[in-house]
Amino acid sequence: MTRPAPALLKPRKAPQQSRSAVTIAAIHEATIQVLLADGVGRLTTTRVAERAGVSVGTMYQYYPHKQALLYAIVDRQLQSIVEAMLATADRLKGHDLASLARGLASAWLDAKTADMVASRAIYGIAAEFDLTEVMKRTQNLMTQVIAELLAAAPDARFADVDGVAFMLMATLGGSVRVVLEVQPSDEDLDRLRRELPRVCLAYLLSANEGPTG
């Protein structure tokens, strides 16, 4: 099956006023509700419009077809995660490795579990799109941010800080995804929140060649 590329899925227009932003939010929420209730196979723009309380014509002002609507949901989730991680990076700049491991792991897990209902729906539709370009761009940005944090850590010196940052990003992403994809129990999430910082710190300590200076 050919998956549409992101360039073909852009919304027709972006909301310019607060009223439009409210409409978009209602459409997104309705999309999540329809996905969870009926699955992606039965989702139509008409069903979403009815659930959101807007006309189909209003829907088409923003999303010309179902695929564009679904892609917008995925893209919104990615953006929220990036924004949360960037805010965390600003707060952690200059902290030691233990603080970085704990802070990054907690922030990543918080961002991924902030809306578990939406996350469940999104995992079911992400495979329908060619997200290679988008995911690569997100991965590169996060790796760069983590590399800058590691380079500024007062108790660390890495021979290949970019390589360490890449591996830490892969550890965060892979660990959380493999747990969240199977509708985890509260116990699973508690265990992940407890153990993931330890995993990250153990890796950073093993790659560390010593304090800077």
Structure notes:
There is one protein chain. The protein has 9 helices and no strands. The protein is mainly alpha-helical. Helix 2 (45-52) packs across helix 3 (56-62), helix 4 (66-92) packs across helix 6 (116-125) and helix 4 runs parallel beside helix 7 (132-152). The longest helix is centred in the middle third of the chain and has 27 residues, at 66-92. The termini are far apart.
Output the helix-strand order: HHHHHHHHH
Separate helix tally: 9
Radius of gyration: 20 Å
Q: Indicate the overall shape.
A: elongated
Tell me the total number of β-strands: 0
The residue-averaged pLDDT reads 85
Helix/strand class: mainly alpha
- Terminal CA distance reads 54 Å
Q: How can the largest sheet be summarized? A: none
Q: What low-confidence regions span 5 or more consecutive residues with pLDDT below 50?
A: none
**Share of residues in strands:** under 5%
* Secondary structure: helix percent: over 70%
Short overview:
With about 210 residues, the chain is an all-alpha fold.
Write the layout of secondary structure elements.
Blueprint (H helix, E strand, L loop, with lengths): L17 H21 L6 H8 L3 H7 L3 H27 L4 H17 L2 H10 L6 H21 L8 H20 L5 H22 L6
Helix pairs in contact: 1-2, 2-3, 4-5, 4-6, 4-7, 5-8, 5-9, 7-8, 8-9
